[in-house]
Write a structure and sequence with these properties.
heterodimer; A: alpha+beta; Thrombin, subunit H; 2 domains; B: alpha+beta; six-stranded antiparallel sheet; four-stranded antiparallel sheet; 13 strands; 51% helix
Chain lengths: 444, 348
Amino acid sequence: MRKEVKMIKVSPWVALLCIVVGVIALGAGSALADEGELLYKKLHTFVFQIKTSKSADAPKLSYGSGFVVNKEGYLLTNYHVISSKVHDEDDNYKVYVVIDDKNYEAKILGFNIIHDIAVVKIDKKFDRALTLKREAPAIGQEVYSLGLPQDLRMAIVSGTYNGVISDGPYERVFMTTPINSGMSGGPTVNSRGEVIGVNVSHLIGSLNITFSVPIGHAMLLLQEVLARKEEFALKNSYALIGEQLKQIQNSLLKELLTSKSTPPIVAGWMLASVPETLKCWGKNTTSKKKQYQAIDHFCHLKNAAYLENGNYSGSFELQYTVLENLTLSSLQFYRKISSVLASDDGLENIFLSLFDKTIQSKYACDEMVIVNPHKISFKIATCFAALTKYQDLYKLHFKAITLNRGNSYLLFKGEFNGISKENSKRFLEHHLARISFDDDGGKR
Amino acid sequence: MKFVLKLKLKDDPQFVFHQHWEKVRLTIGSSAKNDVVLDGGEIKDFQAEIVYDGSKFILRYLDSDGGSKILEGAREEFFIANYQLEFMPISSSEQETELLPLTTSAGGTLSSRSSGRGDLWYYLDPQEVSKVNLKYLASYVILILLLLLFNSYIDAALDSEGVRDLLVNFLSLSLIISLFTAATSLVLKVVCSRFQYFTILHHHMKVIVLFNLLIVFTSPLLFNINSNWGMFLVSSMLTLSFLLFTFYGYARLLFPRVMKWKLAAFISLLYSVVLVGINIYDAYDYEDKNYSLGFEAFLPLRAYSESQYPMSSLSSSIEEQIFDVIEYRNKIIEKKEKYANKNERIYP
């Protein structure tokens, strides 16, 4: 069979329009490419590798990037790039800035673990420094990140600016520049080459979701460092980190205790309000033979503050699980709950897990049956471990289960890494006191 | 002169064992303490020997001041523990005809040997022992497997699971028990190769099995008792009785001469009391302060009988825990300071 080919007649005006649009588009692409090239040329001499090693020639313990923010030799980087030096109690390591294959020993002058930024200084003067720009670009504008990915060489990558995301005490610029390991601490700049952020992380598992620290936080730290008269003593760094961890939890607790959002109702259980800062997920699982169902409501804070050696603090997780009996007898349901609880990853495992004594003490736990103002009984188990280096900060694990609802049990559990004694009391009492059974089926 | 020793079980006269005896002197029993029952009368705490003087048997007490007693006639019967012993002189010609296989009710063949002191000492040939042990252990294992099957059935019924889960549960439990039994039988084979030991094991096996049976049958129910103290009491009672009988059995098994039933019972009772005491201490610790009993103690079903506290009590509980962890932290810091050098960071 012969295929009929239809010829489309195009008006000469339309053709001309297409050509014009095409030329403009090509021009824009070329302009973008030129922009990257120009920015690289303009900025790359102010961005360097920052490494931690035993000596200038010794192999690196860690590395990242940093950029010049002051002609006197001040550089900005991420706290996590130099954290191994902050925690280097035996003074085995030094921080170096690598400029033209020459290693300049750097002093740490200040850091902020909440925003993951640090200021270091080297004995070298620069002709000029990068410009820091507090005003954010418009959403959708092109931004660029510079740094030395994977210890290769200086690179510039582009993406779009998507605004600032606030996760409780944490604030991050949401962008799409592909940041790789080694670019941490490098600058994120707008199309004019002004620094709007400090490269910090990428979302694991995402295609191109990356973050930088809004430059405002770095400017505050820099001001603080420049205004400081006495020398920054690294030996006091644990006290400083402790203070910053307390700021994180105070901010979080404030949001948790004063949240005005509608209290969630999970399978008839009314819970305490959860602030929007926490991202929540839900899951409903029915057992194989439809004997019972588990309804999970899981909330957590996406961010956490990096401490050292892969350890984080300031994280928060909260989980509510309702187990509802469908067809089992009471005895069978009790047994099922027991087995579900026993197989649950919870407090029982923390005694078996090994812990690093330089990070935390062993756990002290307690359990008791308490009755909340809605006459609901809970069996609650709490476990605390003290963070070794930071005074009045603890790791809290808790698990509470309701006792007096025959066919519906609520399990409430969570973890808080880096919480004070008073805040843990306030948090637990607040949340347990607000749990009630929604007898009106959520109509209240 | 040769003699025939007829040995029969007092409880079961059908079992008659014959043994030839060539010595003119036979010591009854072999340790410092024997019960010799003579004509219904009981003589205790003496070691005795029987001597045949050519016309009559003479029973002599070997204690220095025990004296001796001339037994009447040329044929005497004694009762030692569960055995009736009958001595009779025979002529040499009768020897072959009187020699009978000594078959025990347990299925082994009795042999005899005499020590230098003339003790009569029965034992089973090692091969016979293993056969007999295997027979009893096999029956024991079969019984346990049956109990496990029943237990699995109850578990499956409570979990409302199907046949597949039942079988998986049963097979996994059976594997564990089989391994345990194999290990036990190995120990028994090495330790209990003597007849006396085995006899005792045989007697007590029934008791042990009975209590195993009780525990296996009741365990699914125990885990669902709706009270901490109810659970505690029942489990303590079971533990106590199980230990009592098991320990008694094994004690008699290992030290048959020393471990008379009263002593064995006393020791096992003492042991049980110590164990229950430890349980009580643990329970107290858990109620008061620690989470040391693990997750089992967290089961909601056991919580009804516990005291309930207002929300404000949580605060004091947290205070106590924090107090403890500060102690732990201080210990770590003290230890660190001990080995510190001048460059260390300050722990605030």
